Predict the structure.
Amino acid sequence: MQAARSLPAPRMALATPGQWLTILGIAAFLGLFLVIPVAMVILVAFQDPNTGALTLVNFADFARNELFLRSFANSLYVSGMSVVWATLLALPLAYFTTRFEFRGAAIIQTLGVIPLIMPPFAGAIAMQLLFGQNGSINLLLDEWFAFKLPFMDGLNGVIFVQSVHYFPFILINLTASLRNIDRSMEEAAQNLGASGFRLFRRIVFPLAMPGYIAGASLVFIKVFDDLATPLLLNVKDMLAPQAYLRITSVGLNDPMGYVISVVLIVFSILSLFIATQATRGRDYATVQRGGGGLSKRPLRPLDAVMAYGVILLILALVLAPHIGLFLLSIATIWSFSPLPDGYTLAHYSRVLAESGQFIWNTLLYATLAGLIGIGIGTAISYIVLRTRIPGREWLDYVASAALAVPGVVLGIGYLRTYFGIPLPGGQPLTSFWIIIVIALAVRRLPYALRACMAAMQQISVSLEEAAENLGATKSSTIRRIVMPLMTGGLLAGFVTSFATAAVELSATMMLVQNTADAPLAYGLYVFMQSPAGRGAGAALGIIAVLIVGISTYLSQSLAERDRRAKAGG
Amino acid sequence: MSSNQLGEAIRRAASGIEVSGVNLSYGRTHVLKDVSLTIHPGEFFAFLGPSGCGKTTLLRLIAGFNNAQTGQVIVGGTDISTLPPWKRDVGMVFQSYALWPHMSVAKNVAFGLEERRLPRDEIVNRVDQALDLVNLRHLKDRRPSQLSGGQQQRVALARTIAIRPKILLLDEPLSNLDARMRVQVRRELRDLQQSLGITTIFVTHDQEEANTICDRIAVMNEGRVLQVGTPMALYDRPADLFVAGFLGTANILQGTQAGGVFSLRDGNAMPAPAGSPEGPARVVFRPQNARLAGEGTAAEAGLTALPGTVIHSEFLGAALRYGIRIGEDEVLVDVPHQAGAVLLPAGTEVQVLLDHGRALFFPG
């Protein structure tokens, strides 16, 4: 048959009016609360503060300022060292779980979750009390052996707290990629004459490398962007704290905060790029049917002693912030002594009586942020996966780009963009608490979106086609078929967004204008500023841990139940 | 051509394999039960059996990935039972091919040579030889993920023979290929094995694969070697019911043997071979070893006529396969097909003519 030279346009519309409206709404939201604020930050960094002309002079100023250069170097150093220490914590644990058959594997799995259910800054003060110059450990060391270790001095403290907090990212990624190596990969090498360390170096290590790099770059960027932990440990000569201090003390017009923001963004993009390059095109998941993981051997007695020794040591380290925080929250006075002088519940009653609004605000903000994230996430997933509208992937790209925007930068962007816009009452728009919710939602959006995409990809298109075939419209198909099937995945995504939003501080610190509107994380930060407030701050911290812990547990069991229900059906 | 050098080197290295008294168990599961085998130098040998029969376990034992409780594995006169896998010089091609995704084809093939610390140019040389042998030299810079399944398998083969192993172990090498590739690849494997003259063990659960390419086969079931022999010998003279049934279709009729006569359950009788033990027994024959005749045809000498009824038929192309009910038993009989032949409808009364000389008797 002869090919038609030009086909007429398909007679069915590309998308329903409802779909177009949804796209417009999402585009407007992303534009207003992600693209424009970030573009504004970048633009200001390249503008002459007086004339508004485009210039590189701000960057030259940055490069000439000794404090900024030191902060830059410190941020790189702290992030790099945190990766090194996190690797040292994760490596033996990953090795034990993938190499040996032993019961400790369950403990290791728990180890991988415990640190993540506590915001790192919440544990920072507790770590100071346990490991600081006059903390429990050093007091004991001094008494018994007459020396102290500088665990928490200056940058060390940030490195210590961050690596204990973030090592699970490396552990989870590394374990997953080790598990994905098929046993025959290793056996083929043995069959051809390789063994021992050479086998590890030439086969196992390179195959596990992409997973490790993905985890390590995640740790690097989380530490690089983090604002709250260094501030709580009173370390100010790092990039994120400098950006915060410039904006809050010098003012919104000082270009330095924006220059630092640009540096933060560049490094975020760089490490995300490295992470995706490490995994893209190198899908080293090699497990074949019937195969499965590297060969495991039972623990010999000597191995067992070593393994459990290492695991217990790391467990103690990982639990230290929790234990410290808990002790602090029930301590009367805890200073210059290994343990508190006495115990009381006064801090809890004080917090509950005086600062109930922190808790209430947190629950409200995190819930709203989670709902916005899931709502937009579902809409984007549907448009990307189920329609043929040209350019639809861009919604996904832009929403995911929020990953590369540090919280401080988003906060600065909102302030700069919306400070001048007044509310009906004459107040600036940025003092309206909804702005905090939106910032939290945008920050969580990439994660929520991935959860929605995954949930929707599991639904076969034919289930929807069957509904349409039986007379259901697009919208009623979504409501009656798609949403119910996605519920499990969406709930898990919501709870995860909720839990992480509940302890987010970087963006909120910039945006809280009024203590009455502040969430729990901010309240904790304020309490921790004064020695008298520490007990109450710790009590608030424990409440935060409980909220996050319970939510994490909920989301895990929801996801698990969903998986089982789907597998059964 | 340079690949001939490789062939020469391998032929010189070809070794016989002696497996004796091997017992292996995982906890309570006895996986290999007193296995003994002799494989001759240069032979293409198959371990054939259903899944879970222990064939792969035995292969992995020879490669050193399993540890036997008792017994020995001797390759070329040397006991390798206690050597670790990397000191055995026993080349194995994995079912999954196990190509390392982070290395190019050439790097994969070079791996074993590098582990043997050969000089650089020798390695380059040998990699080319091995890849020539499987006609893949032009793809040496590709990554395994860029190759088709058949090409990946040839790379895995090249990687293994590059080290000039004493023996070659193939673990279900055709199982990951589609049906058409399978026929082609099994021919190529046979040709390659013949030209290299390398002692090869081939593990499979498919009797057709084993029959078409192997010199001799060990049929295994439940951890035991039941019978070793050439494909034809196993087919024609199976040692027991399992082997008879596993290699091709077998009809089984139950009965009793007494005084040199085998009596079927429906009362028909036929002479039993001399010296068969008395008691319950079965007669086994293949569908092509019987004929059909019309009702009431007189039996010729050396044939037993068993009256039966056609219950179904299948057209196989070269033959018509009839299902015939004889008393309580059901048998299959193949009738060679000629153009214009008429199909017997179900319900037709027939006589199954069974050739005594081609029937097998098993006690039990």
Strands of chain A lie at 100-101, 297-298. Chain A has a mean pLDDT of 83.
